[in-house]
Amino acid sequence: MEKFQFNIEHKPDYSFLTVQIPANTTLKVEASAMATMDTNIQMKTKFKGGLGRFLTGESLFINEFTAQNGPGEITIAPSAPGDMSHVYLNEETIFLQNSAYVASDPALSIDSKWQGVTKAFFSGENMFLIKASGTGDLWFNSYGGIMEIDVTDSYIVDTGHIVAFTQGLDYRVSRVGGYKSLFFSGEGLVCRFSGQGKVWIQTRKIGPLTSFLRPFRPQKNN
Questions:
Q1: Which 3 state secondary structure label does DSSP give 180?
Q2: Which of 104 and 186 is assigned the larger pLDDT?
Q3: Radius of gyration of the chain (CA)
Q4: ∠ at Cα 193 (166, 130), nearest 5°?
Q5: E strands present in 53-186
Q6: Per-residue pLDDT tens for 86-129?
Q7: Residue 175 and residue 181: Cα distance in Å, rounded?
Q8: Cβ pair 163, 203 in contact under 8 A
Q9: Under a CB-based contact definition with an 8 Å cutoff, are residues 81 and 13 in contact?
């Protein structure tokens, strides 16, 4: 049963989350994502993720917001311009790409998960996934819109489009085509999922955007 009442506005481009926190209840939120909150809400910062999130360049901290002496409202604005999704986990586990976490019920365990050197090296993605497990509400975001895919046997997703996937799906990173495809086509690195579960994908990925913007960056004169 969901503990928090919430509303997600301005989907899918600039999603903005409003959560009603019951009295004397805490909500975990990614550091720097809070936009507004009622005056009776108190914030504490907790070290979370340890070395994993440090090495990936992500925040070391998750903030805890507690509504004291009555209920309170908080609004949350993720850093990436894109969509946001909510899932309620019932003794379940979901894996998020390392920048997708937005907020969660404190009853959920939020930890980083080592992908393994081979998967991290060939995927071109960061070496850690975020593992959310237990029972409670979870919110996550993307760059671009989010599509939810039911996987019943196997499915292939470009590594840069993966937002989240459920436990029970096996996955491995491989090439599509040969080495020419890998280095010259803009394609080539995919994640091959197998089993039964769900995969959430984003309709855009950061890499092509940064490549598009690179020629417009100011250049230093030597």
A1: helix
A2: 104
A3: 19
A4: 40
A5: 61-67, 72-76, 84-97, 101-104, 109-114, 128-141, 146-151, 154-158, 162-166, 170-175
A6: 999 999 999 998 889 999 999 999 987 656 544 544 444 445 68
A7: 8
A8: no
A9: yes
Structural domains of the chain sorted by starting position, each given as residue range(s) with its CATH number in brackets: 5-209 (3.60.160.10)
Token couple for 49: 């993720």
Q: Which two tokens mark 129?
A: 């996934």
pTM (global) more than 0.85 = no
In the chain, the amino acid numbered 56 is T
Name the one residue in this structure whose structure tokens are 């995927």. 123
How many Cβ atoms from other residues are within 10 Å of residue 114's Cβ? 12
Residue 185 has pLDDT above 80, yes or no: no
For residues 182-190, average pLDDT: 53
